Amino acid sequence: MGLHIGIIMDGNGRWAQARGLARTQGHREGLKVAKQIVKAASDMKIGFLTLYVFSTENWKRTADEIGFIMGLVRQYLKSDFNFCRENHIRVRHAGDLSRLPPDIAKDIADVCRDTESFTGMQVILALNYGGRDEIVRAVNRALAGTSAKEKEIEINETVIAGHLDNPDIPDPDLIIRTAGELRTSNFLLWESAYSEYYISKKLWPDWSDADLAEAIENFQKRERRYGGAYAVSDREYHHE
Ligand code: FPP
Fold first, then answer.
1. What DSSP assignment string belongs to 78-94?
2. 10 part of the active site
3. Residue 123 forms beta bridges with which residues?
4. 123 Cβ closer than 6 Å to some ligand 1 atom
5. In this model, does residue 58 exceed pLDDT 90?
6. CATH number listed for the domain at residues 4-132+172-220
7. Are 14 and 26 in contact (CB under 8 A)?
8. 77 within ligand 1 shell (Cβ under 6 A)
9. Which terminus of the chain, N or C, has less C-beta within 10 A?
10. pTM of this prediction?
11. Which of the listed residues 37, 53, 111, 125 should we mutate to test ligand 1's pocket, taking the one with most ligand atoms within 8 A of CB?
């Protein structure tokens, strides 16, 4: 099983503002870079790539900006099926699909279904995603799955992990954030307990394949202890 990398693609707005352009132009450029990084990660045989596209908090932005990002998502989902087929990329979703515009929710469900059998890298689009929201939905799903008389089920780590949006996907090994901010912004809260973080000062639209390679190289030099005293190999951690 290959590495799981998560990316907080930050800095589109700043990139545009620095050039006297509308924020939306930054998102357009951000989509181009996202496509390029998906291809690079797939060529590097990364197992899973989670992209933070739109958070549960991003609804606070102007209607224009939200509409534009949703438009880019729609364009990406519609135009990139051939690319996914050629590269065996499976697309998945994390977040609350039920609170997205119905047409986008349908496009996402369609692409997830149409790429389900592809066995290469999995790209997880975190869209209307919030880490706290995911944990709350996981607990509610666990409770909903039990009969009234069993309502006193014990909520433990295994139960929550088993009801997350994509319970079969391993926790991220590395989380990359661009544009220099030092916070998680509600990204993969449960899953990132032992993830390594890599912060890049570059804004997302300035990112390239070389930056991804550098982040991975930096990650590979680190010693992961998972709370223990000694370095643990990924093999041992995943009990393979
Ligand atoms: C953060 O920059 C970026 C976003 C909230 C949107 C990310 C969306 C894309 C890259 C396009 C869609 C991609 C796919 C894969 C469908 P910001 O606006 O917060 O930048 P700022 O912090 O400089 O204002």
1. HHTHHHHHHHTPEEEEE
2. yes
3. 49, 91
4. no
5. yes
6. 3.40.1180.10
7. yes
8. no
9. C
10. 0.93
11. 53
